[in-house]
Model the fold of this input.
Amino acid sequence: MKYILLSLGWILSATIACSAGAAGSCQMSYKVQPGQIWVSEVTSQFKSTAAEAEAMPPTRFSVRYRILKGDRRGWVKVEAKFIAHSAQVEGGPDYTKLTYTADMHRSGELRNVAHTGSAMPPLPKEQMDALPPQYAAMMAQSNDMMAKGLQTGVFWFPELPENQLSVGDSFDDVQKSDLGNSAMMQVQTVVKTEYTLEDVSQGLAYFSVRQRSQSKVSGMGSKMDTRAVGKADAIFDLEQGMWVEMTTKTQTASSFGDAGSGGTGGLQVSRYRMQRQ
Done:
């Protein structure tokens, strides 16, 4: 059970536009348009603080975003799919089977976020028919939680403020998620991020980023509490209206049980790059 909680905790932690105005300022909005295709490439590596722990190889994945026409002015529809993931192994989860959709406002507000498909390989029908109903329900919930946990790595770009920013100004982004609410598993996560504009130069806006998060996972007699503190540098392309690069460094600490014993922690370094195809 501890391995399952650690794996889910990794998924949760693996988690975080402008037009030119006056010198050193910008008005933020996303400028994605129907017909565009964007690809996000993410590299992430976790280094445990445990002396006996071996260095984990970096995880790499890519997500393709198709921008479709929205139902209202100022809105578009976004269809996102994993097109590659280094954690995939034969017989294991296939993340390319997942498709995410959302209505996105030019401010970055997301509505009607949903996913279809399952990353887990299906069991043969005769095996599914032989499973007790409660076990089949647990499998379905586990698959749904995995997909929702990966969602933060898909829609990682924040909602933007309405007001114009000058150098030194900040805006906050708060994301809350509840990945399960049953006797089998309960997961609650809160991520608070502050973006501070540091410079506007040659069509790019440069931000420093600070982030705090907490995830609580419980179920099947076990509990895990993960807290993380991170900082990042981020670059926003003013003409394209999209974040193009973000590098984060996050210190995490996890504890198990009511007494907070058996803890583990480490440093997670992630790099996001977004390019229009």
Q: What stands out?
A: Residues 1-22 have pLDDT under 50 and may be disordered. Residues 2-276 form a domain with the Lipovitellin-phosvitin complex; beta-sheet shell regions fold (CATH 2.30.230).
